Amino acid sequence: MTELSETAITGVDTHAHLFHRSLPLVSGRRYTLDYDATEAAYLAHLAAAGLSHGVLVQPSFLGTDNSHMLDVTRRHPGKIHGIAAVEPGISEVELDRMAAVGCVGIRLNLIGLPLEDYRSEPWAGLFRRLAERDWVVEIHRRAGDLPQIVPQLLEYGLRVAIDHYGRPDPGLGADDPGFLGLLELARTGRVWVKVSAPYRSSDSREMTLRMSAMLREAFGPGRLLWGSDWPHTQYEAVATYAVEYAALKERIPDPAERFQVLAETPAKLYGFV
Predict the structure, then answer these.
(1) How far apart are CA 207 and CA 244, in angstroms?
(2) Cis peptide before 77 (omega within 30 of 0)
(3) Residue 12, SS3?
(4) Which of 48, 56, 72, 178 could join 143 via S-S bond, C-beta 3.0 to 4.6 A?
(5) pLDDT band per the 50, 70, 90 thresholds, residue 13
(6) Which domains does the chain have, with CATH numbers?
(7) Are 144 and 178 in contact (CB under 8 A)?
(8) 232 has which bridge partners?
(9) Which residues contact 91 (CB under 8 A, 6 or more apart)?
(10) What is the DSSP letter of 261?
(11) Side-by-side strand order, sheet with 136-140
(12) What is the Cα–Cα distance from 87 to 243, expressed in whole angstroms?
C-alpha cells in the first residue's frame, strides 16, 4: 500500500524520468544518456509549475533495474509514485517490496520490439497478479498496434494508460488508423491516454491540437492525463518543461477540464487519493 498524500493536489505530472550517467545501462538500448536528470531538478520543475505530485516512469535504457527510481519514491511517500519495468516472472515478494515504496504500476515499452501473445504465460500470470493489485499498465507503442495489444490486457480487468497520444505515425497524425482505433477504446472505460510528448509523433502544432480535441471528445477529462516527458530524451533541443506545461492550456482550453486532467483524474488513477 502506498501512503496517502496529506498535501493538496494542485496537479500531477504523470510522466517523467530520472537518471544519472553512473547508472548501468542495458545493451541494445536506443538511447545513451550524456547528462543527469536529477531528483532535485525534477522537484524544482514541479514547484515552478505549481504542481504538487509526480509519477516517475522507468526509462528503457535502465532496463528492469528500478532501484534508482524507487529510491526517489521512497524519499517522497505520497508525493512521487513510480511506474516500473519488470520481467513477467517477477516474484510476489518483489512486487510487494516495490508497492511498499510507492510503485503503482508497470510500463511495457514496446517500441522496436516484436509483439507477444499477452494471453499466454508468463504474461498471463503477471497480468492476473497486477489486476489483483489494481496496478496500472502503461503502454508505449506505435498507434497501429494498440488495437491489437490493449484488448488483450483489458481481458484481465486491468487499467491501461497509453503514452504520448498513442504514438501515431508522424505522417498521418490524427488520420492514423491506429489512433482512430485508440479513440474507439474509450468506450471500455478502462483506458487512459497521456496528452504528452506530441513531438515524438509530429512537429505540427495544428495536428497536436486536432488530436487533443479528438481525445477530449472521445475520452473526456476523466480519462486524460498530462505528463511533461521531462527531460525529453532525444528531443531536448525542441522541448522544455515550462513550454510543455504551458502548452496544456491550448490542448485542454477549458479551465475546469484542465484541472481535472492535471489533478483529479491522475490522483485517482495513480493512488494519490
Answers:
(1) 15
(2) no
(3) strand
(4) 178
(5) very high
(6) 12-269 (3.20.20.140)
(7) yes
(8) none
(9) none
(10) I
(11) 12-16, 53-57, 80-84, 103-109, 136-140, 159-162, 191-194, 224-225
(12) 35
pLDDT tops 50 at residue 1 = no
Angle at 124 between CA 87 and CA 57, to 5 degrees: 40
Q: List the grid coordinates of 57.
A: 516512469
Q: Of 128, 143, 140, 212, nearest to 180 (Cα)? A: 143
Q: In the prediction, which pLDDT does 227 show?
A: 98
Nearest to 141 by CA among 118, 120, 119: 118
The CA distance from 265 to 273, in Å, is 10
* 143 Cβ neighbours under 8 A, 6+ residues apart: 166, 167, 168, 169, 176, 177, 178, 179, 181, 182
Residue range 242-253, pLDDT digits in tens = 999 999 999 999
How many residues comprise the chain?
Answer: 273
SS3 category, 109: strand
pLDDT at 160: 98
CA atoms within 13 A on the CB side of 162: 33
Nearest Cα neighbor of 57 from 259, 261, 258, 230 is 230
